[in-house]
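Re: export button greyed out
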Amino acid sequence: MSRDLHTVEGIARVVGVDGATAWLEPEQTSSCGSCASASSCGAGAGAGGIGTVTDRIAARRFSLDNADDLHVGERVVVGVAERALIRAALTAYGLPLVTALTAGGIAESAWASDLATMAAMAAGLVVGLLAAGTVARRLAARGDLAPRFLRISSPFKGGEAGIRDACVAPPQPASCAKPAVGRAAAGRGMGEETGVPSTCHASLTHPLPNPPLEGEGASMTLSIGNSP
Amino acid sequence: MKDFALMMIGAALVNNVILARFLGLCSFMGVTTRIDTAAGMGLATTFVITVSSMADWAVQHWLLDAYGLGYLRTVTFILVIASAVQFTELTIKKVSPALFQMLGIYLPLITTNCAVLGVALLLVEGRMSFLGATLFGFASALGYSLVMVIFAGLRERLALAEVPRLFAGPPLGFIVASLLAMAFMGFSGISTG
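Workaround output, generated via the alternate export path:
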């Protein structure tokens, strides 16, 4: 399926199916949780508790109509319209800012006092946030804010065999670097959807058809990919 | 009014947070692969910078200056910014859970954005009024968002272009960023002319 340039896509995992409704959690982005400080910031695998990334992801659980017969554990690609994201950001952040700054400007010209300006801006911010809530409810009622199911993400083949299959290599036997296996099992360091390891190292023995080599049946070893 | 307008143009374009002061470069390179995500991050940062500018001005005038605690400025401002991010996150979640689901992912990243702290420290040095400080923060954040969106647009075009493999990806991004910074140097003529 071709990628729709006007849709923002993300990968989510099905964590529950309740009749006609499927519950999904957004998958952790590839950059967060794989950095050197993951264990101390709570983004690392297995970290839990209030305020951690795991907790945040659980809080962002959302539901979809299960018309496509999703099953628990499946990785799916969901998307929202690009314009919906911009509209949501303008509603949530732009509207309160405009009301706060307008109220502050009016108060400054009327009283020219820092305290009055501050009070007016705080009141303007509250009014703007309430207005943003109203607009957001209207957008949500129209279904503009709800993510929709696009497709099942390419299944991840675990283990060394899966990585070997995913490697781009000629038909000859190929093997990948061992270190990639551990990261693959944790679901990180992979190409976003394809499941192809970011560092894939394969070597093969390839008989060359042309005669740069001397002797009958001569062969040479080629190396594909990054050096370890 | 004219003073405010000139100050805002200066903060947004002449002394741009990213391209003139070189703050917030991590998000500049990290969140600019698509225009929509760059715009979302820019708007979230604009909101947080403006709200934290208001709070920082109050803390600076009525706490740090009043009690001679200027040496605690950086630590205090970090605390204020973290609180502003938490306030924003909780408020958006309360006002509209649907909006929070869509936008919430950007907010925790802003706490570690050095542009937010940089703007807060700059507005203290400026000795501005409350409205002036808030508008300075708002205009700086608008300049940040503008550069984020421009750079994301350029990177979207570059992703489709055929470039030598050696330069593909981040290397070309850095080269484009340097050209963009040189282009923005042209705005400095406004202040001297």
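Chain B has a mean pLDDT of 87. The button fix ships in the next patch.
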